[in-house]
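chain below, 349 aa
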Amino acid sequence: MAGPILVTGGAGFIGSHVVDALLDLGHHVRVLDCLLPAAHRERPSIDPRAEWIEADVRDPDEVARAVDRVGAVCHQAAMVGLGVEIGDIADYVAHNDLGTAVLLRALAANGFTGRLVLASSMVVYGEGRYRCPEHGIVRPGPRRAEALDAGEFEPRCTVCGRRLEPESVPEDAPADPRNVYAATKLHQEHLCAAFWRETGVPVTALRYHNVYGPRMPRDTPYAGVASIFRSALAAGSPPRVFEDGGQRRDFVHVRDVAAANVRALTVPDPVPGTFNIASGAPRTILDMARALARAHGGGIEPEVTGEWRAGDVRHVFASTGHAARVLGFRAMEDFSAGMEELATAPLRA
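prediction:
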């Protein structure tokens, strides 16, 4: 590949694994990361084999320097999580959408002709895919607070009121972002699609499902549910499982996610389009909490609280056939082994 591979957000949880995988394959890697305090309370170690630019993706001058002569771009930089409150909305839009726009403008100005891989997310789907026994595939509306307070967590058919059966969600399912972060991730996809149409640069959008593994951040808005549970166990406390624990998700190891990025960046011919990056084996949140607690070996059982959060969805898990057929990606990491690794792996402050 002519020129270095630029990884924005390359010091973060997923980005650092992508950087490591690329370096191990002998690629020249350039990292752009501003070390946002919300994600990095301590300065992370950067592999000395990588070229390092500590700067914000919203800074036009620094981004122009970062994209100089690059052969491919892996855009991981973003604020993640639901958003603590609506007051966070401007920060999410600035980091995720404005940052993406600044990057795309710099690539266009630089005459970039490589390929672009975007870190997207399953949150763009909102609720997953559901089937009514009478009305087929239906889209449930937002869950009502009064129903959630009463412990009625399962979505119902908007036509007949029956409980719906969740199914794996394919990439062509309608988008329905239900929180600020989700809205910004979908906008990133739209911006990159416009860039693709205007410039001809192929864009591969990888919709990550619930990523876990070493280097997860702990105790921050960036912490995923697996790291929150891991931090609780390390403190001798039971993981607190919201609702009844029956929410279904697809937990995919960060090494598999890195492998999907490397494949999209390096296969001989670009593979544009949108792909679910997931294990293909959905589990409930309570299943994951119990597996992690067993792996931790402390005899602590998860606590099912019945609490709920606005913006959460009930079930969303991936159809992985398209990624396997077109991108050639299949997750390889074993879930039980991954939980055992996570139970003792260092987490980022």
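The chain has a mean pLDDT of 93. The first strand starts at residue 5 and ends at 8.
thats it, cya
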